[in-house]
Amino acid sequence: MGMKSPLAIVAGAGAGLGQSLLARFEQGGYHVVGLGRTRPASCVGEFHLLDLTDSAEVERRIESIIAEHGAPKVVLHNTAELVIAPFEKTSLDDFQRTWSSMVQTAVLLAQSTLPPMVQAGGGAFLVSGATASLRGGAKFSAFASAKFALRGLTQSLAREYQSAGVHVCHVILDGIINTPRSREIHSLDPSKMMALQDISEVYWQLAHQPKSTWTHELDLRPSSEGF
């Protein structure tokens, strides 16, 4: 009987970057599992409908996945909840929703996957950030405050788990990702947008860096993007 394929889990496995990440890691020989609240019309690999803010549900589902496939070698946190509104029209619920979607989900995912990864000898835990992880723009108070918190959480996890063999990395996506929805919203030339396959390739490379040269934070942007 042959060895099992290594497991890669993508939380926030939506129709854009999430599915592209699953496709890249499946292409690389992983058994891929997507987690999310909405099943895309076209799914790569195994997909579980899951409320990633629900502590008991996340713990139960991750335990079940690990029992079947073994501890994950790669875990990718890619959830998002975008709120754009003037501060005076941004409700407390908006702040709580963005925080629970992007930070609480990362806490629960990390609590469920990092200990098994350590026991299995290590791996990579990669987190998707955004321009708002570094600077808060007008009308982005809810989104930016949650992305700042997610960056801080990721830094703490990196400092706690890298000595145990888990590569924790925060990836800042400083640009517009080329998807049908973003093209419709932004009316940008696709050549000035971030290609899904190119982002996914960088995540693949980060997940397989040698231990002597681990990246903790990487910012990605199109060559046309100012910064």
Description:
With about 230 residues, the chain is an alpha/beta fold. The chain has one domain (about 5-220): NAD(P)-binding Rossmann-like Domain (Rossmann fold, 3-Layer(aba) Sandwich), CATH 3.40.50. Helix content is about 40%, strand content about 20%. The protein has helices at about 15-25, 55-70, 90-120, 140-160, 180-185, 195-205; strands spanning about 5-10, 30-35, 45-50, 70-75, 125-130, 165-175, 215-220. The protein has a 7-stranded parallel β-sheet, sandwiched between helices. α1 (about 15-25) links the parallel β1 and β2 (about 30-35). α3 (about 90-120) packs parallel to α4.
What would the CATH topology be? Answer: Rossmann fold
Helix content: 40-55%
Distance between the termini: 52 Å
Helix-strand sequence: EHEEHEHEHEHHE
Strand content: 15-25%
Give the mean pLDDT. Answer: 94
Give the oligomeric state of the chains in this entry, treating copies of one chain as homo and distinct chains as hetero.
single chain
Shape: globular
Cα radius of gyration in angstroms: 17 Å
CATH class descriptor name: Alpha Beta
CATH superfamily: NAD(P)-binding Rossmann-like Domain
- Strand arrangement, major sheet: 3-2-1-4-5-6-7
**Helical stretch tally:** 6
CATH architecture: 3-Layer(aba) Sandwich
Unreliable spans are: none
Helices and strands: which structural class?
alpha/beta
User: Strand count, sense and closure of the main sheet?
Assistant: 7 strands, parallel
